[in-house]
Design a protein that fits this description.
The structure holds two protein chains of two kinds.
Chain A (H helix, E strand, L loop, with lengths): L1 H20 L1 H8 L7 H24 L9
Helix pairs in contact in A: 1-3
Chain B lengths: L1 H4 L1 H16 L1 H4 L10 E5 L6 E6 L6 E5 L2 E9 L2 E6 L2 E8 L4 E6 L2 E7 L8 H21 L7 H7 L4 H25 L5 H62 L8 H7 L6 E4 L4 E4 H18 L3 H12 L3 H25 L5 H21 L6 H28 L7 H36 L1
Antiparallel strand pairs in B: 1-2, 1-8, 2-3, 3-4, 4-5, 5-6, 6-7, 7-8, 9-10
The chains are: A mainly alpha, B alpha+beta.
Chain lengths: ~70, ~450
């Protein structure tokens, strides 16, 4: 689990750094409207697929887990 | 994975896409803005710009090109006519592409609206991350209601109103997807109910936007804001009080939640088609669930917190438990968020940087909130929801004098208006913080018992 969290965390960080170091270009593409509307939607989906599991594994490592059913 | 492959889920995604394809033509002015108003630049090289202004009280449009100012007349919803010195000019709005076609002397030129995106500072970054985290926590716990504070927060940082709404909605659907999946794993989501709610809610959003446009055309922006605030206060005060009283009643009776009398009565009505909701363990007519979804969408298009009607509706009208209602609401929220993201994306108003920062915090928050539901008793969801609803109602109540002033029914000083705006914002933030405190307290208590 720790390894998965680490890998996903690094990928997530790389994605965030990539977006914010190229924020001008990415903002421009995402705000062109029409068919370009797919870009922000795809971007948030990709981020949630990477960052979501990363958050899940990190929380588990921190001991924040759901209560098991009796 | 099972959730994403289920027939109900795939059907809901398909229906949402079909509904959304009909949305853009009518959706632009929704969410509190006039699509004509703003600065427009040449589509090709932005070498020429003009501005369209609208008087907040009279609703009159003015075309401003450098030093020249001309009155613009609205011929219909998508067409403005301006009588310039060079001859009559028509400005035709294309909501699908978010552009204006300017026709002057039979020459057509296309313009696109200039959207001003803020420069991100470290403070803004950390602030949004925190608000996203707290908003996600509340959403994961009560199914909705965490995002309504984000729009005013972004606007207080200098983000344009429509960009704030668009960026907020774009973070909502992946957050709801992750939250819904998490709660599906805990066996709390009723997919069939969620799909019906999502589809009918999108229909409600469409009608709500039309109604907003109608009010905007008659009374202008101030009238629109007044309508939104009144809807907020009336709905939240009534529903919030019912939810709060019920939570207190259950607490006094030892924390055992019983199905509402109204729901039991409605479950006995045999009006086909009848559906059995497996997770909720309820058999009910579809005609009972449809109005709740529709009202959720209607409220979502008005106050951006449809869950405040959707969750109590599922509890008191359909007869589900609070846990199932709040989990199922995330499916509805996903549907509405997805539809909204396409709509705002088509208009090019999503600031992806803001969306991603909020998402970074909210993906943690939503999962903690979802886990929190496994530690608390059912009534805690009602308690948190009721508290937030009542505090938010107060925040909107504080805003009403400002809109009455803008409509000319009241006279307030600039200082008073500023004070009221600050007080309203503080109250909204307080609602979120109170909700967070109750969730964390409930979770810690539950974890200690374990």
């Amino acid at each position: 689990m720790a390894l998965r969290a680490l890998v996903l965390g690094v990928v997530s960080l790389v994605l965030y750094v990539a977006v914010f170091t190229h924020q001008g270009l990415i903002t421009d593409i995402c705000t062109r409207g029409h068919w370009y509307a797919a870009f922000p939607i795809i971007i948030v989906l990709v981020f949630s697929l990477i960052h979501g599991p990363f958050a899940n594994y990190s929380l588990s490592l921190l001991g924040v887990k759901a209560k098991k059913k009796k | 994975m099972k959730m994403f492959m289920s027939r109900s889920f795939l059907l809901s995604v398909l229906v949402v896409i079909c509904l959304v394809s009909f949305m853009p033509q009518q959706a632009c002015a929704g969410g509190g803005g006039d699509p004509f108003v703003g600065e427009w630049g040449l589509l090709t090289d932005k070498s020429h710009t003009f501005t369209i202004e609208k008087d907040r009280i009279t609703g009159r449009y003015t075309y401003v090109d450098g030093e020249e100012r001309h009155r613009a007349v609205k011929e219909d919803r998508y067409l403005l006519r301006v009588d310039t010195g060079a001859g009559p000019m028509s400005l035709s709005l294309n909501l699908l592409t978010g552009t204006i076609a300017v026709t002057l002397n039979e020459t057509i030129t296309e313009y696109r609206k200039h959207t001003h995106f803020i420069d991100l500072t470290l403070f803004n970054f950390i602030f949004l991350l925190f608000v996203g985290l707290v908003g996600g926590l509340v959403s994961g716990f009560i199914g909705s209601g965490g995002s309504f504070v984000l729009t005013p927060c972004m606007m207080s940082m200098g983000v344009d109103g429509l960009v704030a709404v668009a960026s907020n909605i774009c973070h909502k659907f992946p957050k709801s997807l992750v939250g819904a999946y998490k709660r599906y794993q805990y066996g709390q989501v009723d997919l069939k109910l969620g799909v019906i709610m999502a589809v009918t809610a999108i229909c409600g959003v469409m009608v709500g936007i039309r109604f907003q446009q109608y009010i905007n055309e008659i009374w202008g922006d101030a009238g629109s804001n007044l309508y939104v605030s009144c809807a907020f206060v009336v709905v939240l005060l009534i529903v919030g009080t019912i939810v709060m009283l019920d939570a207190r009643k259950i607490m006094k009776k030892g924390g055992v939640e019983r199905t509402a009398r109204l729901a039991l009565y409605l479950q006995r009505i045999n009006l086909p088609p009848m559906i059995h909701l497996k997770t909720a363990d309820v058999t009910i007519s579809v005609w009972v669930t449809v109005p709740i979804g529709f009202a959720t969408g209607l409220l979502a298009s008005t106050i951006a917190a449809g869950g405040f009607i959707g969750v109590p509706g599922m509890i008191f009208v359909v007869g589900t438990s609070s846990i199932v209602a709040s989990a199922t609401e995330m499916v509805t929220s996903f549907g509405m968020g997805f539809a909204g993201s396409i709509k705002w994306g088509l208009l090019g108003l999503i600031d992806i940087r803001l969306t991603l920062i909020i998402l970074a915090g909210s993906l943690f928050g939503v999962q903690v909130g979802a886990m929190g539901t496994t530690y608390v008793k059912d009534y805690m969801i009602k308690l948190v929801m009721g508290s937030i609803m009542l505090i938010v109602a107060v925040s909107r109540l504080i805003s009403i004098p400002t809109y009455l002033h803008e409509l000319g029914y009241l006279s307030l000083s600039a200082r008073t208006i500023e004070l009221l705006k600050d007080a309203s914002f503080i109250a909204v933030s307080l609602a979120l913080l109170v909700g967070t405190a109750l969730i964390v307290k409930g979770m810690v208590k539950g974890m200690r018992k374990k």
